[in-house]
Prior knowledge:
The protein has 336 residues and is α+β, with helices and mostly antiparallel strands. The protein is 43% helix and 17% strand. It is an enzyme of class 5 (isomerase).
Amino acid sequence: xxxxxxxxxxxxxxxxxxxxxxxxxxxxxxxxxxxxxxxxxxxxxxxxxxxxxxxxxxxxxxxxxxxxxxxxxxxxxxxxxxxxxxxxxxxxxxxxxxxxxxxxxxxxxxxxxxxxxxxxxxxxxxxxxxxxxxxxxxxxxxxxxxxxxxxxxxxxxxxxxxxxxxxxxxxxxxxxxxxxxxxxxxxxxxxxxxxxxxxxxxxxxxxxxxxxxxxxxxxxxxxxxxxxxxxxxxxxxxxxxxxxxxxxxxxxxxxxxxxxxxxxxxxxxxxxxxxxxxxxxxxxxxxxxxxxxxxxxxxxxxxxxxxxxxxxxxxxxxxxxxxxxxxxxxxxxxxx
Length: 336
Ligand SMILES: O=C(CO)[C@@H](O)[C@@H](O)COP(=O)(O)O
């Protein structure tokens, strides 16, 4: 078993790897490494990965529920503990909000056709029922899925939990999971059977440039899924936790004019711009990058569930509760 200090260093570095590989946005997701039969080290709750160091990593005792560290442990420590309890040989656990696994976690899981090699590489795959992030209900549902023997869990309407014997295996499984889910995802506009008008990036940029003086920071994206969704619907509802939290219960599409986009951004943090993509109102580049990634993911998820005719919107209460908690609490944590 590696030393606690070594484990803390690996976990801090893995958090940044999670962000850089776009398996998460902002401070979502979490990483842990086993240090004993009932103990592991885990990332703190709500801290940005760019500034995270080994000193921020928390030592958690799953038996007593006690923890040591200068920061509170991840709110998802329960699902990590469940993974280590289920698999004695588990050495590393990551929770992601990865795009395509999140889409398949919404719909189409029963249509996944994995080869024997893919199934073996993942260590088995299962879909767990929904529970609010950090809740006992979520932990119970993930625990039930882990009990099937699967090491890759799609957490419905949330993300994924991946278990490995070490960091290398856990990350390889996360990337393999994204690969097989992307292949099965209908959120790629080209598979939606309709032509996608590739945006005139300059038209979107012209709108952003004209609005820039009125906002602290504007980010934008012309990801094909945002264009396709802007053409398909005037509003989409949150199907995934992190959209509800960082964008809100609804994402609206408005006409491609500076006036319409500017007006929408007075009350919304992200807006789809018809035929062009999406614009996000942020405090800085990191915030803007997170918002554009979540907007792209929400659109991929919408196109996927729309193609399968299987919408799974979050309940009004859950979506608004997560938005409230995010604005009042979680969004304030990033800097520690
Ligand atoms: O979605 C959430 C938090 O809202 C969690 O599942 C996770 O992604 C991030 O939680 P922590 O920052 O680790 O407490």
